[in-house]
Amino acid sequence: MPGDFYIDPHRKVDRAVITHGHADHARAGHGHVLTSPETAAIMRVRYGKNCAGTFQNLSPGAWVDHFGVRVGLVPAGHVLGSCQIVLEFGGWRVVASGDYKRASDPTSTDFEVAPCDVFITEATFGLPVFVHERSEDEIAKLMASLQTFPTRTHVMAAYSLGKAQRLIAELRAAGYDAPIYLHTAHQRLCQLYQDFGIDLGPLLGVEKAASTDLSGHIVLAPPSASREGWAGALNEPLNCAASGWMRIRKRAQQSGAELPLVISDHADWPDLTRTILDTGAEEVWVTHGREDALVYFCQTQGLRGRALALIGREEEPE
Amino acid sequence: MKAFTALFDRLSVTPGADNQITLIRDYLRQTPDPERGYALALLTGSTALRMTRPAVIRAMVEERADGALLAMSLDYVGDLAETVSLLWPAAKTNRSAPSLSELVDLLPQSPKADIPAMPAGWLDACKPAERYVLLRLLTGGSLRAGVPASRIKAAIAAMSESITADEVEEVWHALTPPYDDLFAWIEARGARPDTDGKPVFRPFMHGTEVSAETVENRAPDADWLVEFLWNGARVQWVQAGGVVRLFSRDGDDLSPAFPELTSPLPVDVVLDGQLMVDRRTGTGTELGTAEDLERRVQRKTATSAQLRDRPARLKVFDVLAVEGEDLRGLPLRDRRMRLERLAREHGLDPSPLLDPASVVELHQGLAAVAGTKGLILKRGDRPYGARGRGLRAGANRGDDWLKWPRAAHRFSAVLLYVQRTAGGPSAAFHEFTLGAVTEDTEGPSLVPIGKVSPTGLTAEELAQISAFAKENTRERFGPVRSIEAGIVLEVACERIEGSARRKSGLRLITPRLLCVRQDVPWQHAHTLQSLLNLIA
């Protein structure tokens, strides 16, 4: 690859450009990391101050030159600090979307379309059946459930970066002003969001609360934590989950959640396809999820669509 | 449609009777007539709207969506109605989703030619979840959301301070959708719906399962009537105004599935009894298995082959009403006399009365009497008192009918799968799947033989299993995980029947767990063959 750097590399490299702070994209141990100020802060909170040799902050709108490649960032709307990576070299413009969404989210800068020649898109929900609900409508279901079951603790499974803070902010926007309880795994990142000026309202640690305090309240916990001791002590916990996968009935039932909400931090099918057309790209590389349907879609639009996993193999003989 | 869809979606993922009752009660309180009445009809399966076939729906979506994308989606989702509900292209429309009342009113009156065009307009106006419900409605799919009918009646009763679920049960079958009169009564705006001369279901009186010791220590001076406990399904046979209905334990109407039992008698009566199915083969007739019965109950209507080879019959043991006269307040002894007279006059098959002085010998000899699963001892001086009726003094559950089941088979089996309770503590299990040992050339392996509730084990045993399962998980399937062989459980079950449908070739009837067998290595648990040898 020109420029001698990697985007979201899985192994340790000398030079990495990072789209956002989720663990499968941002790893510790790179020599030099170029990313947004927010993502750098998230990585330091998650992995420690020395998780990379050096950090170079780049804000959307600014550019750096890197061994002949011009690198810029454009907001991806996925989580706080998430960006698409724009690369310009040899008269070409390539955009790697990273994970993105176009639905509104009070905790993340809105997605911007970055026109390009080659668009590398994610495809987590790359099937036409994935059509997310409006988050306001889904949050309304949670609010209604608190009315229907006023004594049950609503335990919401949510990843600690992004989903948790978005749910809190959406609840606040819907007028929910009671304290929201946080599992320890969520506390540092919520603090970081607040340090960046995002208002999350009153938050309390679940470990300090008696189970009676939690009755009728919302507890946010990582998906893995619902079997821990504190959850077992709750009076009739009501498990909730928020994810794009909840769109599929079988998956919702398998999750064991009593209140599955279709809220995702990824683009749904209509937004994935709309974005491909919006970028004006003539070539689309599909990665990170279900490639087949999106590649097929590109073909029906007269675009060259390829699953990224296949590209390496095609080019090997050269 | 929107509110009903929200309820249906929520019910399908909500465990626990109380929570389901709360959801249904709130829906019924917040929804106007007649909409809530039609919702009730769908939830109880009293009404099905079917105007088209899945193939028609498929053709409609093929006109609107790319064939390749449809195929990929269908492959991923698996269910046509769900796939179409999600894939249907959003269309600008100023209509709103149809209400259930609109659908019910419109469908039967619309000219046949108009019908194909109607669903498309509705589907355009729906959101995906509503579209799914609508598609199921249009194609005749069930919208019962896995909620038993008795729970829905409990939810109706929960709307009122004074009316019990049993009272709702007792008027239910005299009513028709949209149930305006029911809601008027529940909301104290109207009188109790009239059930005179209508075939309604009456809540059952239940016995309590007891041990030999309780049977021995029963009130010695009381008048005890002793009968066999029969295999089969408890049913209520109701005739009113010459119309016959057969109700299940849960108050569901089974009549269409059992035409051979619905010929009217010269008198209107209400009988309590046991439904049994025979198995007729070229060589003779024997009692059918639990599976034979289940197959007949599960079908909406019986096939002619079923009527020929698996005929049903009724063993009657109580009479609750004759010619409109409610006999439930009479002592059992008096009801029994009425029953025997009816049996003589109309050729019924009453469960025989046995000698109360020799219950121990009778119990020991149960194995020799085909179709029995125990004894039941009933107080002859007591009225027919259903749980929670509170109408008749002295009629509480437990004292009046004592069920003494036959000694169970005991064997050891290996734990194969565990399913956890959603949201419970780490040792909270919902269901275990058991396996039996088979020998093949590769050495001992395991075959699933049935599922069992974890109740019966101690907290320590469950904690031990939980710790083992955590360390020895092989695969996860949602809340279910398969675990390495290692936990051996002692199991008791009423009996073991042959089953052609199952890989193991057998079916455990009412299995329950006794303890964890620390002393038995899994390879030495019971073999499949040894269990097959126990088939009655």
Return Rg of chain B in Å. Answer: 26 Å
For the termini of chain B, the CA-CA separation is: 50 Å
Arithmetic mean pLDDT of chain B: 89
Strand portion of chain B: 15-25%
At CATH's second level, what is the architecture of the domain at 208-404 in chain B?
2-Layer Sandwich
Share in β-strands of chain A: 15-25%
CATH topology of the largest domain in chain A: Metallo-beta-lactamase, Chain A
Radius of gyration of chain A: 21 Å
**Could you state the order of secondary-structure elements of chain A as H and E?**
EEEHEEEEEEHEHEHEHEHEHEHEHEH
* Helix-residue proportion of chain A: 25-40%
**Total domains of chain A:** 2
Instruction: Tell me which oligomeric state these chains represent.
Output: heterodimer
Mean pLDDT of chain A: 91
Label the structural class of chain A: alpha/beta
Main sheet record of chain B: 7 strands, antiparallel
Choose one word for the global shape of chain A: globular
CATH superfamily of the largest domain in chain A: Ribonuclease Z/Hydroxyacylglutathione hydrolase-like
Unreliable stretches covering 5 or more consecutive residues of chain A: 310-318
Helix % of chain B is 25-40%
Tell me the greatest interface.
Answer: A-B, 38 and 38 residues
How does this structure look, described?
The complex is a heterodimer of chains A (318) and B (536). With 318 residues, chain A is of the alpha/beta class. Chain A has two domains: 174 residues, 4-Layer Sandwich (Metallo-beta-lactamase, Chain A); 127 residues, 3-Layer(aba) Sandwich (Rossmann fold), CATH 3.40.50. Chain A contains ten helices and 17 strands. In chain A, the strands form three sheets. Chain A has a seven-stranded mixed sheet. In chain A, strands 12-11-13-10-14-15 form a six-stranded parallel sheet, sandwiched between helices. Chain A has a four-stranded parallel sheet with strand order 1-2-3-4. The longest helix of chain A is centred in the middle third of the chain and has 14 residues. Chain A starts with 5 loop residues before the first strand and ends with a helix. With 536 residues, chain B is an alpha+beta fold. Among the domains of chain B are: 197 residues, D-amino Acid Aminotransferase, Chain A, domain 1, CATH 3.30.470.30; 124 residues, Nucleic acid-binding proteins (OB fold (Dihydrolipoamide Acetyltransferase, E2P)), CATH 2.40.50.140. Classes of the chains: A alpha/beta (318), B alpha+beta (536). Chains A and B meet through helix 6, helix 7 and helix 9 of A and helix 1, helix 2, helix 5 and helix 6 of B.
